[in-house]
Fold each of these.
Amino acid sequence: MEFKNAGLKPKAPSMSRKTKILVTRKLPQPVEARLSRDFDALLNAHDIPMQAQDIRDKSEGSDGLLVTPGERYTADLLSTLPRSVRIIATFSVGYDHIDLAAAKARGIAVTNTPDVLTDATADIAMLLILGAARGASWGERMVRENRWTSWSPTAPLGHDVTRKKLGIFGMGRIGQALAKRARGFDMEIHYHNRRRLEPGQESGARYHPTLADMLPHCDFLSVNCASTPETRGIINAQTLG
């Protein structure tokens, strides 16, 4: 994990004891084994989602919290956490569930896990593109519901992705990883990003300075930008039209 945005380093606990942390959800067994080895960890054995009051109560005396996107760390919750809490580590790349300004005001460092899900997310994006094009979802339903009668040259038909145009909205780590996979299907890559990539990073992708400029060139569109006030809801009736 790396420190992100809060700009503070947690105060080291006394060397006479292990760091005490509250783990808010049940995590994979190897992770919990390491937590138990290295920390005085209060685990959530039954994976019962914690409400704000549960977090306050169970974090009493803790040096830090290991949290997930399933909880919201609002200014109210952060301001009422025990004074012993000096760090919140989130089991995720995203950290929009944590009010960073409120954490900084309380002197709580916030860390996340950047870049660990780039390949997995790009794989799933390509899976969804292929699934939508080839009708994987309804094709599977036909087979499972015993509605597949025989082969037909006219129905049901899907669409090829080969040599089609893929528009990528947000050409960061995940967008670039998706573009790399799409090139394996000879797709033509178009992208819109806040900043144009260096030529060596583009690998032939065509840059569009605005989303509106890119959209008419898309047979497929992948949204890989961060969810911010500026981007939220930007794919709407107007942009789809």
Note: The first strand starts at residue 2 and ends at 3.
Amino acid sequence: MKLNRRSFIGSSVVAAGTLFVPRTFVDQSAAQAMAPLSAESGGTNSPAVIDWALAALDRHSARITNRDRIGIADFSAPSGDFRFHIVDVASGTITHSLLVAHGKGSDPTNSGMAKRFSNLPGSNASSLGSFMTGDEYFGKHGRSRRLHGLDDQNSLAYERAIVIHGARYVDSAMAKRQGRVGRSFGCFAFEQDKIDQVLDLLGPGQLLFASS
């Protein structure tokens, strides 16, 4: 999917309340060489989320040191959809679309739709806003990556241990059969056979943006 090209023109554009300014992009040859994580077609339920993510990239430019690609979680879509998108900023394209879980506290009836979001410890809910990817570590879910919340609505993400990890309850067969995947405790959980590539694509110092 091609990004909205208005985000790349030289003149400033207002989007989501933030002023876009011209930016320098990295070479896109590495992104072109990547194999897709999924055969599913890329797309987003809410095209405006791409503009919001790019605005967040500008807003948090002092913290986001690696600006070659960003991750976008579109929680307006059901969990059975490939609603997590990795965007190559230089070429303006979604290069990968994946399944991602939301928190139990965001979907207490297990409907597959995230309806509530929280920054509170113990809520088991997903948080919205801008996250900076942090250090990689090995925990109970195996290879994982810490996240730092950059906005008021997700400022406790690190303290809540909201991270990127793989999980058995995120599965494409389940998504096709039930129209949804399992729920996390607020973490961004991916299919276990995809997590290595996700963590390689979203290394430390990159933006993960979640919207509903």
Note: The longest helix spans residues 48-59.
